[in-house]
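From the shared-data thread, chain only:
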Amino acid sequence: MVEDELDFTPPCPDITIIQAAIEDFTDLEFMERWVRTDLRAISLYYRDALRRWLSIQSG
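Structure, as tokens:
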């Protein structure tokens, strides 16, 4: 799955905006359970995402 990247312009020159993936779309089990069933964006989705991909999200 490829998503379009948004072009953000920082509100101030001292701010740096970093775009980083927070989900692993290669995790087919997760995609089947949450995305393909339209159950994403509920609290259980985020709990499972944090459990699975904490290393991605904490960078």
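Residues 43-57 form the longest helix (15 residues).
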